[in-house]
Amino acid sequence: MIRAPSSVSLYLIRHAEALKNLEGIHGGGDQRLTPNGVEQAHRLAHFLLQRVGFTSELSTITHQPEGRSEQTARIIGGFTLSRICLVPELEGVGMGIIGGLPPQVLAKQYTEIANGMELWRASKGAIPRPKVPGAEPMINFADRVLRGLKLSIDSTGQSHSIAIVATTSTLVMLKHLLRNDGMFDRPSYEFGEVPLGSLSEWRITNEEPPAESMSTVIPE
């Protein structure tokens, strides 16, 4: 189960645009935010301040251990004056031998895997993810991300609001676990892209299962 000692607003945020996103690399790549990404992060900060009252004394931001998420979290935290925490357990799913490869290299060196990944993404996870040597099993990924979520909730202390800044694989898993109250249900798991700079809000209490109350892409 996913519970909090007192009612907490949880905001799941996909990091802002980075150079890596323009490169189309699975893991690795240039983590620096683009100028557009910096603007996206600023818009996220203003949204949290103006629309949901994400203020310094009442908020915590956690992020996974990679540059895009940390930079986005720090830009938002610079506006909201929130406490910022690294949670290693929130790292994106391990991609094994294909991690960090540019698309053209992936397609040339591991053609079958590359084609399988495209089919898996197109099916939103309805078909099994292709086997990749060294890749992290999904059940292990789910267990790790659940630990990261609970550590993030525990890190809030007396905070009433928490934001988690992460990549698509982590956010998709977080939403799946929240919908299933902490259980990884493989048949219902669906992979889908999460827009850059988007945000969803969940309410976590000490009595009821988590509930989503808002999902939005911050407008230009």
Structure summarized in a few sentences:
With about 220 residues, this protein is α/β, with parallel strands linked by helices. The protein contains 7 helices and 6 strands, in the order E-H-H-E-H-E-H-H-H-E-H-E-E.
Written overview of the protein:
- The chain is an alpha/beta fold and 220 residues long.
- The chain folds into 2 domains: 8-93 and 138-217, Rossmann fold; 95-135, no CATH class.
- It has 7 helices and 6 strands, in the order βααβαβαααβαββ.
- It has helices at 19-23, 35-51, 67-80, 103-109, 111-122, 138-154, 168-179; strands spanning 8-14, 59-63, 83-86, 161-166, 198-204, 211-217.
- It has a 6-stranded mixed beta sheet with strand order 3-2-4-1-5-6.
- A hairpin with a 6-residue loop joins strand 5 (198-204) and strand 6 (211-217).
- The protein starts with 7 loop residues before the first strand and ends with a strand.
Sketch the topology as an H/E string, one letter per element.
EHHEHEHHHEHEE
Beta-strand percentage range: 15-25%
Please count the helical segments. Answer: 7
- Rg (CA only): 17 Å
Which second-level CATH architecture of the largest domain applies?
A: 3-Layer(aba) Sandwich
Q: Could you say how many structural domains there are in total?
A: 2
The class by helix and strand makeup works out as: alpha/beta
Largest sheet: 6 strands, mixed
Mean pLDDT: 88
| CATH topology-level name of the largest domain | Rossmann fold
- Shape, per Cα inertia axes: globular
> What order do the strands of the largest sheet run in, or round the barrel if closed?
3-2-4-1-5-6
Distance between the termini: 37 Å
Give the low-pLDDT segments.
none
Helix content: 25-40%
Question: For this entry, what is the oligomeric state of its chains?
Answer: single chain
The CATH superfamily label of the largest domain reads Phosphoglycerate mutase-like
CATH uppermost class of the largest domain:
Alpha Beta
Number of beta-strand segments? 6
